[in-house]
């Protein structure tokens, strides 16, 4: 039997459509992409872990039965999210990174410049990314993009990769998280494959490395990346790096790496304003082919202000809630669907003064002690916790936080942050205490 997956999947969708409401079908099945097929397995691409979970829990049997009706054969169905490696399909996945399809496989197909919503908060980073994509290694090298979680850094990195491959299909483009880079390095050392590892990352045209802050403190990883960076830069190859903070604020990052990250252009992404948040929701609804009234989009954009990932997740949650309860999408339904993740009260403004006051109360010290030169543990440790919380809960730079604690140097803040981070990991009692303090600061 000639197994043409596209034909099989199109016929499968026709069957499934007769079994579901239009809302459920559009919500869960329009985003599925047929990937590969062999004698006993079909891989289907889905946009995220949430969709994968719903499909496995509610629709897997329906899909398998529909495919069996079309093919007269039982297939194992596996859902793959972007970035997940395809391993147990009965065909060889080429490892050579000069293969265009392998370069593409690392990139989320939905993360392109066309799907990126531009606003005042990200205009500079978008322009810089487009300039690099149009002229790799000629515009800005490296390009360093930083910003908070879920603001679009990874989207821009993938968009650069897609654009370059569209212009030059033979380009060797590698996207990797710093965590994966570290794990591959460890495995290469263990298996005596150092040469193979270095060839993989030093013989590319474009290297996109995400969340570089996680190599801080890892001496061997920093050493390897330093030489990788040098090899690529000297060969006039493009390097794009992302982080949750600028190079100068990454603690325990080697100075030689810090200076290299600052050679090119540093671009930041800030939380989106209201107009941009609404535009992001409209774009997401269009891409996912779902209808959401404008008043519901305004409600979501008003309630979720800092994180694009949470913003889009709220939209999907509302549509899923509508589908599962067979109700129309309204503001009332949205309020009900999001009641566990947003508050109806205006969030408390968090600043250094508030953090100091609440930490001081919890440790029975005076607020003014935090600004003093006193170094007894009963004062120094709560001061370090307050500095840690200022770094976690505010957008202040390290030097500014130091200024707020009696004019201390930013390296003191870095030491405090690293110290408390380590203590939290090793002391469950302290972790619980700090979680309670954070809830108190947030007014929960």
UniProtKB/TrEMBL annotation:
Residue stretches making up the Chromosomal replication initiator DnaA C-terminal domain: 351-420
Entry GO CC: cytoplasm; plasma membrane
Compartments in which it is found: Cytoplasm
UniProt region (Domain IV, binds dsDNA), positions on chain: 323-444
Binding site for ATP: 150, 152-154
tRNA processing found in the keyword field: no
Domain of life where this protein originates: Bacteria
Boundaries of every AAA+ ATPase domain copy: 139-267
A Pfam family assignment: DnaA_N
Keyword Cytoplasm tagged: yes
CDD domains reported for this sequence: AAA, Bac_DnaA_C
Domain writeup: Domain I is involved in oligomerization and binding regulators, domain II is flexibile and of varying length in different bacteria, domain III forms the AAA+ region, while domain IV binds dsDNA.
Subunit note: Oligomerizes as a right-handed, spiral filament on DNA at oriC.
NCBIfam families: DnaA (TIGR00362), PRK14086.1 (NF010686)
Similarity comment: Belongs to the DnaA family.
Job description of the protein: Plays an essential role in the initiation and regulation of chromosomal replication. ATP-DnaA binds to the origin of replication (oriC) to initiate formation of the DNA replication initiation complex once per cell cycle. Binds the DnaA box (a 9 base pair repeat at the origin) and separates the double-stranded (ds)DNA. Forms a right-handed helical filament on oriC DNA; dsDNA binds to the exterior of the filament while single-stranded (ss)DNA is stabiized in the filament's interior.
Name the record gives this protein: Chromosomal replication initiator protein DnaA
Gene from which this protein is expressed: dnaA
């Amino acid at each position: 039997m000639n197994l043409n997956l596209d034909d099989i999947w199109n016929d499968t969708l026709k069957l499934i459509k007769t079994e579901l409401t239009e809302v459920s079908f559009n919500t869960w099945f329009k985003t599925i992409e047929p990937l590969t097929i062999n004698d006993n397995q079909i891989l289907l691409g889905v946009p995220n872990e949430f969709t994968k979970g719903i499909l496995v829990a509610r629709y897997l049997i329906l899909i398998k039965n529909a495919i069996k009706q079309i093919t007269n054969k039982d297939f194992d169905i596996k859902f793959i999210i972007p970035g997940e490696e395809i391993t147990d399909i009965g065909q060889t996945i080429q490892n050579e990174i000069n293969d265009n399809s392998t370069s593409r496989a690392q990139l989320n197909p939905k993360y392109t410049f066309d799907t990126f919503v531009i606003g005042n908060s990200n205009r500079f980073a978008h322009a810089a990314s487009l300039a690099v994509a149009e002229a790799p290694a000629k515009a800005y090298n490296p390009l360093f993009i930083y910003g908070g979680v879920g603001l679009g850094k990874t989207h821009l990195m993938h968009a650069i990769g897609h654009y370059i491959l569209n212009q030059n299909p033979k380009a060797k483009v590698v996207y990797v998280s710093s965590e994966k880079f570290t794990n591959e390095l460890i495995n290469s050392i263990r298996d005596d494959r150092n040469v193979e590892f270095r060839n993989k990352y030093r013989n590319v045209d474009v290297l996109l490395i995400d969340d570089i802050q996680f190599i801080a403190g890892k001496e061997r990883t920093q050493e390897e990346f330093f030489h990788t960076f040098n090899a690529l830069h000297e060969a006039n190859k493009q390097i794009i790096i992302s982080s949750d903070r600028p190079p100068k604020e990454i603690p325990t990052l080697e100075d030689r790496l810090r200076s290299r990250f600052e050679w090119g252009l540093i671009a930041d992404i800030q939380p989106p304003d209201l107009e941009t948040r609404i535009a992001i929701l409209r774009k997401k609804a269009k891409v996912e082919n779902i209808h959401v009234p404008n008043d519901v989009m305004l409600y979501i954009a008003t309630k979720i202000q800092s994180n694009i990932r949470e913003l889009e997740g709220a939209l999907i949650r509302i549509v899923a809630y509508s589908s599962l309860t067979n109700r129309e999408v309204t503001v009332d339904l949205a309020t009900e669907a999001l009641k566990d993740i947003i508050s109806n009260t205006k969030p408390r403004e968090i600043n250094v003064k508030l953090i100091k006051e609440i930490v001081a109360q919890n440790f029975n010290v005076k607020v003014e002690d935090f600004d003093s030169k006193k170094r007894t543990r009963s004062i120094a440790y709560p001061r370090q916790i307050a500095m840690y919380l200022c770094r976690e809960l505010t957008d202040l730079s390290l030097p500014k936080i130091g200024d707020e604690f009696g004019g201390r140097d930013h390296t003191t803040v870095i030491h405090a942050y690293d110290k408390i981070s380590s203590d939290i990991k090793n002391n469950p009692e302290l972790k619980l205490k700090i979680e309670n303090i954070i809830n108190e600061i947030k007014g929960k």
